Amino acid sequence: MQSTPQQELRLRVLSTDAAHHPRSGFGIDDVHHLISLPCLPKPGKRRGRRIDVSKPVQIVDLFSGPGGLGEGFSSCRRSDGSRAYAIAVSIEKDPAAHKTLRLRAFLRQFNEYPQEYYSWIAGKHECPDWKELYPRQWKAAENEALCAELGKPEAASLLSERISATRRLAGDRTLLIGGPPCQAYSLAGRSRNAGIKDYRPKNDDRHFLYREYCRVLRAMSPAV
Prior knowledge:
The chain is an alpha/beta fold. The protein has eight helices and eight strands; from the N terminus they run βββββαβααααβαβαα. The protein has a four-stranded parallel beta sheet with strand order 7-6-5-8, with helices on both faces. It has a two-stranded antiparallel sheet with strand order 1-2.
């Protein structure tokens, strides 16, 4: 039997000299990068192996910040009360935001939050040593919430390993979410950049962070 050419999904992304605000004066012609991505496999089956659809859809969360978007997905429940989604891995470079991201990942390990958490936020004592009190849950949180800078080789390698593990677990029952890396494109960012002497967009790595989404899409082929 002759093999048919692989179908492709084509994705448009902003060029480095375009803007994403509707009143910026840039039209659709400025969005000229076109990237080919493989089409998705059939849901529920991967390499001849049936995937357990009763388990939560596994999420990869990029540019996570403190994790608000992932928290919203994680709060979704099925009619039987089980989680519809689970964060397989989230990644954020800012240490302060990552602390919150990791704490939320830790708290999601419990059906009911530890009493020490309520005492802490009530100001009754300093932040507990979660690793000492709940080593298994804290290790799971550290495994889920990564502090790394997307766009760097070490982060790409680490994320690739985690995506491969997620694919083995969930097949194509995966979901890619994340914040837009828009600092270089936003009106505020463009205004700040205009005040930088000899600023050149092509030398600003932030203009090319969209490629991280493209790379992860290629590796994951997520259902959404």
